[in-house]
Amino acid sequence: MTERLRRIGVLGGTFDPVHNGHLVLAEAAWQEFALDRVWFIPAAQPPHKLGEPVTPFAHRAAMLELALADQPAFMVNRMEEQRPGPSYSVDTLRELRRQLDRDCALYFIIGSDAFVELATWKNFSDLFRYADFLVAERPDSAPGQLNELITRLPGGFQYEPAHNRWTHPHGACLYPLPVNAFLVSSTTIRCKVKTGEDISALVPPPVAAYIDRHQLYA
Predict the structure, then answer these.
(1) pTM
(2) Is 60 exposed, middle or buried (0-12, 13-18, 19+ CB in 10 A)?
(3) Max intra-chain CA distance, the chain
(4) I need a surface site. Which of 20, 37, 142, 194 has the fewest CB within 10 A?
């Protein structure tokens, strides 16, 4: 019998490579919002990196599989691999919404650093037609910082104090997601590998071994 999923988190990105910060973010969303699954969706052609060198999809997806092997609720979704053109989030969410049962809730997990740039994304207001948003808030964030970011976005969000959430006219809700800070980036990891520095504290051990075995980022 096919399992009926009710609450799915979506964490997209280049994952070049996946690192412990991604896992901390997914873990926080999974626990805080009682998600059935968190789908990690690697972009085939990241729109913000067009023209830049990106590690082949097969390597990035393989590293994700290794990183998630010990967490049954976390899964790699390779839907972007065969889709032509840049991997825009609005297209991804629209396709997921089309595929899933109508009563299955989608939660788009996003770090505050990416959320700051949301208004520059393709058809960004349409994102709120397809999924609720979980926006990471680090413990050291300034009070009211997320509210300030949201008020800058066009679209007329309304805050609901009783639920600690903002609602969008298209129907989606936006929730703050408390998450422990893990200050690391894929860019930093690539640079460390290139200069021969240790990355064992920044990525899961199987990912570090894969990078070394395939001589990625060297």
Answers:
(1) 0.94
(2) buried
(3) 51
(4) 142
CB 19 within 8 A of CB 186: yes
Instruction: Specify if 203 maps to a domain.
Output: no
The CATH number of the domain where 154 resides is what? 3.40.50.620
The token pair that represents 96 in the structure block: 């997921």
Cα radius of gyration rounded to whole Å, the chain? 17
What are 39-74's pLDDT values in tens digits? 999 999 998 887 789 999 999 999 999 999 999 999
Residue with tokens 């009783």: 162
State both tokens at 73. Answer: 């609720």
**Predicted local confidence at residue 48, as pLDDT:** 81
Is residue 193 in some structural domain? no
Beta bridge pairs of residue 159? 166
Domain count, the chain: 1
Note down the domain range covering 105: 7-185
Q: Is there a domain that residue 165 lies in? A: yes
Sole residue written with tokens 């399992």 = 3
